[in-house]
Amino acid sequence: MVKLKTKVTLKPRDFIKYLLDFEEVDFTLMVKTEGGYNNTFEPKLKVKNYITYNEKDETFTVGVQEDITEETVLTKALSVAYNDSNDRETYTVEKGRSVKEIIEKDSSHFFDTKAIYLINDDRTLELIWKDGKLVD
């Protein structure tokens, strides 16, 4: 299954929840006590992901990956479709549509969707749909 890579901005509470749910994080919590009071927690995290922190907004930005389904909205994709009646192939850049919406749009214009490619930020293409189904 092809993965969609996106960035998510999280407030500290949501960031901690994300880290605790994320299975590739090694988490250690050290508790310091001074005379029975003033307990402080010093978490130590080891992640295999790029994380940035914005002091001004007090937010964390994390790169996440999710499986692409036919309902996943794609930021930018290239649709390759064919019309048998006039022997015409078209290439269309789609923005903010799901695979399902792209296929339905093409078929409403009598085109048979042959392939859908995800357009990455670096302008490379990644095949995500071909021959009537999502690629593995």
Provide an overview of this structure.
With 136 residues, the protein is mainly β. It folds into 2 domains: 3-67, no CATH class; 73-134, no CATH class. The chain contains 2 helices and 10 strands; from the N terminus they run βαββββββαβββ. The protein has helices at 12-21, 99-108; strands at residues 3-10, 26-34, 37-46, 51-54, 59-67, 73-83, 88-98, 112-119, 125-130, 133-134. The chain has a 5-stranded antiparallel beta sheet, with helices on one face. It has a 3-stranded antiparallel beta sheet with strand order 1-5-4. The radius of gyration is 22 Å and the shape is rod-shaped. The termini are close together. The model has no long low-confidence stretch (mean pLDDT 84).
How would you briefly describe this protein structure?
15% of the residues lie in helices and 57% in strands.
Descriptive key words:
3-stranded antiparallel sheet, 5-stranded antiparallel sheet, 2 helices, 136 residues, 2 domains, mainly beta, 10 strands
What layout of secondary structure does this protein have?
Blueprint: E1 3-10, H1 12-21, E2 26-34, E3 37-46, E4 51-54, E5 59-67, E6 73-83, E7 88-98, H2 99-108, E8 112-119, E9 125-130, E10 133-134
Antiparallel strand pairs: 1-5, 2-3, 4-5, 6-7, 6-8, 8-9, 9-10
Number of separate structural domains: 2
Largest beta-sheet details: 5 strands, antiparallel
Q: Number of helix segments?
A: 2
Q: Biggest sheet: strands side by side, in what order? A: 7-6-8-9-10
Secondary-structure element order, N to C: EHEEEEEEHEEE
- Strand elements, count: 10
Mean pLDDT: 84
